[in-house]
Amino acid sequence: MTPAGRAQAAIDLLDEIIAAAARGGAAADTLIARYFKARRYAGSKDRRAVRDLVYRAIRRAGEVPASGRAALIGLAVDDPALAAAFDGSAVGPAPIAAGEAAAPGGIAPAWLMERLGRSLDEAQLSALLDRAPLDIRVNALKASRAEVQALIPGAEPTPHAAMGLRLPEGTQVEALPAFAQGLFEVQDEGSQIVTAAADARPGMTVVDLCAGAGGKTLALAAAMENRGRLIACDADRARLSRLAPRAERAGVGPVETRLLDGGREADALAALRDAVDVVLVDAPCSGTGTWRRNPEARWRLTPERLDRLVALQARLIRVAAALVRPGGYLVYIVCSLVDEEGAGQVAAFLADHAGWSAAEPLPVQTGLIAGSPYGAGLRLTPATDGTDGFFVARLHRPW
Ligand SMILES: C[S@@+](CC[C@H](N)C(=O)[O-])C[C@H]1O[C@@H](n2cnc3c(N)ncnc32)[C@H](O)[C@@H]1O
User: Fold this and answer.
1) Is 216 in the pocket of ligand 1 (CB under 6 A)?
2) Are 218 and 250 contacting, i.e. CB atoms less than 8 angstroms apart?
3) Given the DSSP bridges, would you call strands 256-259 and 229-234 parallel, antiparallel or unpaired?
4) Is 233 close to ligand 1, i.e. is its CB under 6 Å away?
5) Residue whose CA is at the smallest distance from ligand 1 atom 6
6) 258: Cβ below 6 Å to ligand 1?
7) pTM of the shown model
8) Digit-coded pLDDT (tens) for 161-174
9) 208 alpha carbon to ligand 1 midpoint, in Å?
10) Family per UniProt (predicted)?
11) Which of 362, 385, 161, 391 is nearest to 287 (CA)?
């Protein structure tokens, strides 16, 4: 592909990504993969170059751009080589007209900047869009961290998580024999840390209420050394169905799965009422802490969608609380740095649940020195901790 052809491909993809953001369609990564599946003629260098253009344009534009062309023109303002690719050739975009609008640069839509800016400074806000490192969690059921480190060239221990390794950018993890052998899972260090806050132990009964495809379930199983009862729930059948093959590869013993009906979760879990040692609520959230991986997610969020998520989180934390046994724990996690979803949600819960309390500060409890105390919990941010952004609280039910 010529530079002009690459620019046109990036514009086409950005148009698709903008449209998908408006209607809640597929993520940018999925759209890019689909685009190239249908264009096998594009070589790996072209794919990398187009992908890079697309992600640079997404990262640069805080507000949803008017079009893919406007988004790419925004990037071309500081990139003369890219501006030259608007050459009007048969495969390329038309030349940039004098005064033609470029998408404005920024970190996030104004309404969201206002919410996030209440507790994050400029540097912390812009770090939300850094490029994320490639982290894995070594599967303690099968190997030690040192053993897996020796198998992967360039792997280094992550700064905080006990089983974390950071791999060189571009490592094709799924092609590594150690992956097929279940010796590790791809998992951001922050996600490893907040799961460790559950302090799941062998023999416990643990519920992962919003398990998705099981990223945290597998870490819980490893911490439990495959002993005890682990119940993974989710309301999304497709996500939950991806857990079984992952569990098998990881050598994780039986995990019970429960497909929940949104709104009727408590009925499906009635048999577990007051009976669970630890309930993990990795709540559905706006994902503002994961923009490093999905920067287009900030184009998807609206105030109405955020309100709906906050209401769902408030409901799920209460469904979870009913399952916790006296003296047990509820661990509430969001990969968001919006207060209403994290610290605010937990403060509201504590205000109407007499006797419940925020447990010991997490780093002391888990031995992990990461994050900063925030509200009744702990917060991790890309700027301070080099992880995705998370809020986690560990709540104790009275005896
Ligand atoms: C942050 S994601 C979970 C990610 C997962 N724990 C992991 O570590 O990979 C939130 C999950 O909540 C699920 N969810 C949404 N509504 C739910 C409900 N009413 N009950 C249970 N899970 C729900 C979503 O399907 C989604 O998988």
Assistant:
1) yes
2) yes
3) parallel
4) yes
5) 211
6) no
7) 0.94
8) 999 999 999 899 99
9) 9
10) Belongs to the class I-like SAM-binding methyltransferase superfamily. RsmB/NOP family.
11) 391
